[in-house]
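subagent[fold] <- orchestrator: predict structure for attached chain, return C-alpha cells only, no commentary.
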Amino acid sequence: MAETYQPGERVYWVTRDDHATVQSVTEDGDIVIVPDHVEHRLPITTRAVFLTKIDGVEFPHIKVQLTGTDGNAFAVIGSVRKALLRAGVKDADIAAYQEEATAGDYDNLLQVTMRTVTVL
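subagent[fold] -> orchestrator:
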C-alpha cells in the first residue's frame, strides 16, 4: 500500500536530498511540495516514490551507531557530526544540530540526536 500524504506534512525529498512541506495532493496522486532549500521555495510536483515521511526524524536516511561511546557527550556529537558531514548535510543544519544538542543536559543531547538522525 502506498504512503498517503497530507498538506502541511514534513517529508524528505530523496531526489534532491532536501526536506520539504507537502502543499497539496492532486487527483492523479501527484504531490505538490515546497522544498526547504530550493531558491525562491516554489512549489514542485513530484511522485510519492521520491518522498519519505520524516516521522519525527530530520535525517532518517543517516544512521549513527551510539553504542560504544560510553556516555561521552563529545563522542556522541562527534559521531553525529561526522555522519552528517559524510552525508553532505548543509553546514547550517549541522551547526543547528550542535547548538541545540549542547543547549541542555545529556538527556537533551540524546533527544536532539534521536530527532536528527536514526540512532542504531
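orchestrator: received. Logging for downstream: The first helix runs from residue 73 to 86. The mean pLDDT is 83.
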